[in-house]
């Protein structure tokens, strides 16, 4: 079992929907979180993408501030060329000693895509992603690539050096639509689900496994969740309710209307869990959808004492989930809580030691 933490490059909060206790995403603060995650034994760190500080620039700076922490970094097929992306990823992999993981972000919102100059509909974005990953994986394998597709074309592309992780750093990917599941089956190493109830996650895992098997492949699985863990279950639920204490009905309604305009199937499924109702937030035992009242994307949290949260994690693990990508508000303090309360109850995979590239001196054979 692997547990990753999240880096809030958009800023951190103590209360959702309130400026009280709000924290700017300054570099010193982000460095504190990353170094805490590194020292506490988290296996990796997801850095958000979108209209925030640039993922790759932040990770490059933090790479020198950490020892073993791996960084799960976004590749955006609609706004990056596959050849440039390959060089960036392989370079980071070599300099960091194999500490890069790659999050393929197709983008679930046409509105957000337009802000980056992308005007493709939902299925076209996934068709482009399929072409992108076909090229990307071939380049990373050291092949000379000639490809002509509907969206992308490359002639004689070739990567001039090898990454540390072979054949390439692992590819992570999330998406709940039929088009997304097809891309996952053909290309990725780890399929990520948002924190839906276990029965719904089980169905998606079965779909991806079936589609991947038809392609002669196997896929691993992870889940993206928030977590609120305390010494007692009552304390955990009190903390959950405290997190949304300042939310009013107008804030919730405005957020829900904005999320409803997204063409993301995953976002639609998140909204269906609670439909914006405060009285329907425990959508499965100890799975709380309060975060999703005003936060897009992953909107559920595991809530409880450490034994209870660990038990719920084992239920997901029994379905095939190996990687848990967690958040908590605020992220610095909650990283310590998770490590101190939860880690002793989990069979954590030891983070790998960074690999070092051999120094080849001129004239050496």
TrEMBL record:
One Pfam family in the UniProt entry: Bac_luciferase
InterPro entries per the UniProt record, alphabetical: Alkanesulphonate_mOase_FMN-dep, Luciferase-like_dom, Luciferase-like_sf, SsuD_RutA_monooxygenase
A molecular-function term among this protein's GO annotations: alkanesulfonate monooxygenase activity
Entry keywords, A to Z: Flavoprotein, FMN, Monooxygenase, Oxidoreductase
Catalytic activities: an alkanesulfonate + FMNH2 + O2 = an aldehyde + FMN + sulfite + H2O + 2 H(+)
Enzyme Commission number, as recorded: 1.14.14.5
A biological process term (GO) from this entry: alkanesulfonate catabolic process
Oxidoreductase in keyword set: yes
Similarity section: Belongs to the SsuD family.
Function: Catalyzes the desulfonation of aliphatic sulfonates.
Protein name: Alkanesulfonate monooxygenase
